[in-house]
């Protein structure tokens, strides 16, 4: 599948109805999601046939994209019920197979509206759960291959971006993909190096933040965002990292 | 919620141990056929908690014929593998609860989505 096709398929994914500012709900745009996943698949083979977890999945943009690219199973996790309801609808609506069909026929735009139950099989590959990531009290063991996320940037709740990242590292066997403000790049690189983790900045993207909330004065703000990949070593994340998480969250055994 | 998803969840209660099995109280389930992929299934078997999976499968009446332990899984036995595939991937609990067996706290499953959030006073 071509990047453009993936992006077009994701255009139909509905976003937040009433975004919640305390959760920093900014929708991942189809363009951003497509770039993100396309890289993960084509450069690193981290999506197709893999078990994927989408932390803070919101309305499911990245989950659906990963499924379109052939993930065997995607678990979308979010703290917000309302967002997950929309995500469930999105999963039901997207007609995955028609996209693949048009691709093989060499056509590119029109998805067949009569597309029967083509989406059914894909639908069953995406499952969701309401879990507070910051509590991380689900089985935080490396049970997924790849963790993908567009986490809160930690502007409303300080440190939330790092908590998401650490959670992802505990859940993944291969790699964690995430987006962070470019302004935090040096800090993240230093932290990763400190724990002997390989972090690569895959791309610097522009994240279009529309004026969704009352406190936004400008109509539209573009912030610079890094798409990063952190590789999980074959032996798992270093125990010292897990200790760090443990000390800030007493429950983490 | 399929059993693969269930297997990755744990009770968020402070008192509960992380390895605790969450009991399923199923009010409604649907079965949806899923493509059988032996490679993927083998990798999943390797990483799931087998006892928890079997207990969950029993409670949903799809536990018959499942090997009692992971060691007894024979990946060349397709009939057995398909049973595991069915229980793990194809049975979807759309309504019901997950019960923390240590505290009795119930977590609702609605529209197939388990809700593991705690109330303020439980944090």
Describe this structure in words.
- Chain B: Belongs to the TRM112 family.
- Chain B: This is Multifunctional methyltransferase subunit TRM112-like protein.
- Chain B: One of its GO terms (molecular function) is protein heterodimerization activity.
- Chain A: Pfam families: PrmA.
- The complex is a heterodimer of chains A (253) and B (123).
- By secondary structure, chain A is an alpha/beta fold.
- Chain A contains 9 helices and 7 strands; from the N terminus they run ααβαβαααββαβαββα.
- Chain A has a 7-stranded mixed beta sheet with strand order 3-2-1-4-5-7-6, sandwiched between helices.
- Chain B contains 4 helices and 4 strands.
- The A-B interface holds A 49, 51, 72-73, 75, 79, 81, 84-85, 88, 120-121, 124-125, 127-132, 135, 137-140, 142-144, 251, 253 and B 1-2, 4-5, 7-12, 14, 18-19, 32-35, 37, 39-40, 43-44, 47-49, 89-90, 92, 111-118, 123.
The first-level CATH class of chain A is given as Alpha Beta
Task: Find the CATH topology of chain A.
Answer: Rossmann fold
Number of helices of chain A: 9
The H/E string of chain A reads: HHEHEHHHEEHEHEEH
Backbone shape of chain A: globular
What is the radius of gyration of chain B computed over CA atoms, rounded to a whole number of angstroms? 15 Å
Widest β-sheet, arrangement of strands of chain B: 1-2-3-4
**Describe the biggest sheet of chain A?**
7 strands, mixed
Counted by DSSP, the helix tally of chain B is: 4
Number of domains of chain A: 1
């Amino acid at each position: 599948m071509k990047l453009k096709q993936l992006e077009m398929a994701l255009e139909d994914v509905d976003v937040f109805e009433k975004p919640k500012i305390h959760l920093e709900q900014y929708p991942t745009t189809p363009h951003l999601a497509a770039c993100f996943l396309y890289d993960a698949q084509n450069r690193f083979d981290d999506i197709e046939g893999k078990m994927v977890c989408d932390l803070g999945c919101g309305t499911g943009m990245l989950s659906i994209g990963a499924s379109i690219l052939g993930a065997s199973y995607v678990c979308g996790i979010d703290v917000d019920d309302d967002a997950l309801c929309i995500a469930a609808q999105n999963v039901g609506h997207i007609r995955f197979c028609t996209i693949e069909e048009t691709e093989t026929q060499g056509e590119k735009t029109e998805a067949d509206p009569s597309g029967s139950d083509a989406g059914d099989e894909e639908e069953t590959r995406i499952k969701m759960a309401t879990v507070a990531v910051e509590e991380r009290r689900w089985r935080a063991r490396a049970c997924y291959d790849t963790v993908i996320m567009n986490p809160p940037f930690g502007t409303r709740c300080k440190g939330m971006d790092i908590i998401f990242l650490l959670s992802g590292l505990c859940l993944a066997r291969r790699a964690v993909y995430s987006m962070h403000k470019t302004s935090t790049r040096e800090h993240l690189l230093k932290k990763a190096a400190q724990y002997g983790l390989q972090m690569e900045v895959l791309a610097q993207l522009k994240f279009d933040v529309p004026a969704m909330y009352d406190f936004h004065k400008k109509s539209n703000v573009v912030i610079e965002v890094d798409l990063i990949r952190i590789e999980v070593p074959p032996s798992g994340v270093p125990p010292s990292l897990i200790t760090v998480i443990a000390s800030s969250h007493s429950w983490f055994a | 919620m399929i059993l693969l998803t269930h297997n990755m969840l744990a009770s968020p209660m402070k008192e509960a141990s992380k390895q605790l099995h969450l009991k399923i109280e199923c009010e409604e389930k649907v079965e949806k056929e899923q493509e059988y992929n032996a490679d993927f299934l083998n990798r999943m078997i390797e990483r799931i908690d087998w006892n928890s999976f079997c207990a969950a499968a029993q409670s949903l009446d799809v536990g018959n014929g499942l090997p009692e332990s992971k060691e007894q899984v024979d990946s060349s036995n397709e009939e057995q593998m398909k049973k595991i595939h069915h229980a793990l991937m194809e049975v979807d609990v759309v309504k019901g609860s997950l019960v923390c067996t240590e505290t009795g706290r119930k977590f609702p499953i609605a529209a197939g989505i388990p809700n593991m959030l705690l109330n303020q006073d439980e944090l």
